[in-house]
Amino acid sequence: MVGCAYDPWMRVHPLLLSLGLCGAVLAAVAVAADESAQASPKQAPAAPSAPAAPSAPATPAAPATPAQSSLKLESDAFKSGDAFPVKFTADGAGTSPALRWEGAPEGAKSFAILMDDPDARGFVHWILWGIPASARSLPEAMPRDLELKEPVGARQGVTSWGRERPGYWGSAPPPGSGVHHYTFTLYALDVAIDLAPGANAKEFRKAIKGHVLAEAKLIGLYERKEAKP
Known about the structure:
Blueprint: H1 14-39, E1 72-74, E2 99-102, E3 110-117, E4 123-132, E5 137-138, E6 155-156, E7 158-159, E8 162-166, E9 180-189, H2 201-208, E10 212-222
Antiparallel strand pairs: 1-2, 2-5, 3-4, 3-9, 4-6, 7-8, 9-10
């Protein structure tokens, strides 16, 4: 039997063995982490955020409308919504009713009146303007002159019948056409409109446009029954 020389380094020291094992474990962990990183797909970049929607433009304020609550138009002959007395129609004397008003707005420089029939395509029976701001009433049976002595400075236009009928002309609905709503509209204006006597409804409405501070209505109902055979 051949003997071998003893070598002390052939024995592995326990401390060196422990260090060797820890190094091997750390190396294995590093390799596994590297492989995992290579195997995982790259994360896609975040999508850019959408631009903010532009703010909607501000809604413009609605234009002011003439006040209707303070100004009030009345007549001693009838109440608004009641039957229109025959004497003020073509079946009677055909004269204008007495009118009065209250609640004039501050800044009113003059008043104007238009009477029409909305049930006959706005047929106009009366146009009167240039009523002084101090006035609060009109008498019954106003003259049909184009320029009036009372109220001072007041003027009248023509009706839908034509220039041969200026001033007030009473209602004359066709027989059997149902109830007609004869409407007196009082306008409080911020100016004394410069309109020639004998103007028609279109010219009148153009002249007062943008100058109406307030308006009030008085409506009389009238009907001509169809004649029996």
